Amino acid sequence: MRFPNFTLNSQVTIVTGGNKGIGRTIALCMAQAGAHVIVTGRTEHELQEVCTEIKRFGNKVLWVEMDVRNAMNVKRMVAQVLEAFGRIDVLVNNAGISHVLPAEDHTEEIWDAIIDTNLKGVFLCSQAVCRQMIKQKRGSIVNMSSQAGTVGLLNHVAYCASKGGVNLLTKVLALEWAPHNVRVNAIAPTVIRTPMTDKVFADKDVRAEMTAKIPLGRFGEPEDVAGAVIFLASEASGMVTGHVLLVDGGWTSR
Ligand SMILES: NC(=O)c1ccc[n+]([C@@H]2O[C@H](COP(=O)([O-])OP(=O)(O)OC[C@H]3O[C@@H](n4cnc5c(N)ncnc54)[C@H](OP(=O)(O)O)[C@@H]3O)[C@@H](O)[C@H]2O)c1
User: Fold this and answer.
1) Domains of the chain from N-terminus onward
2) Strands, DSSP E only, in the chain?
3) 56, 71, 134, 245: least buried by Cβ within 10 Å?
């Protein structure tokens, strides 16, 4: 019999938006699971700081400043990674933004910023990385969706649309790239304590209202998401593709 392999030993792993919040925790946890980690984002001092922490695990590490909305930036990042590591085993498309406001107040600029970052960015990074994964005949892509891709959230019209888009993009890419042994999955978390959700956590009433919707009775932590990402990145999930894994404490089961 073959025992499931939950480790990421020497796997070359890119985490977009790895400089803060959920992405930062994912980057650290993947390094702890054995991966060499490439962290990307737009804030240089945070990228440097997380790389210093990752080095503690003894793995190779690289940071690349880039904007996921910009195809040239993405191509340059992939070229840098290939020059440094020669291959790419795992891509975690984590970078994302949100704006909380009524649909009638979403400007065109806000709509474009959310869709371009959360949906187009996932596509650009997946496409650029997959060309290498297809050559290798091996790879795992994990996209950061949200429970907001499964159920509507008030005042999140562009965000929900972007994450619903990520869910279907995940399924289509999974179908197209399965013949090349490249798996594509998504994680869909509930509310997680990060800089993105500072305002939710600051307001006692909103906090209570949100917690009441989570059957497990608590918000998620970035580590809850990282565990699911490691599973989907690792060989333990070798038969899983096109799946959206809810990490929502039961929110969407009601
Ligand atoms: N927090 C939650 O409750 C929650 C729930 C479900 C899903 N999610 C999803 O989880 C992911 C991470 O969220 P988070 O809460 O950790 O947010 P966060 O703390 O605000 O971090 C977002 C990350 O994305 C990066 N980023 C944003 N726009 C970018 C761009 N155009 N190009 C490159 N990097 C960019 C940021 O880098 P810079 O700061 O350098 O720009 C930062 O590293 C997002 O996709 C989010 O939608 C979050």
Assistant:
1) 12-248 (3.40.50.720)
2) 12-16, 36-41, 61-65, 90-93, 139-144, 182-189, 244-247
3) 56
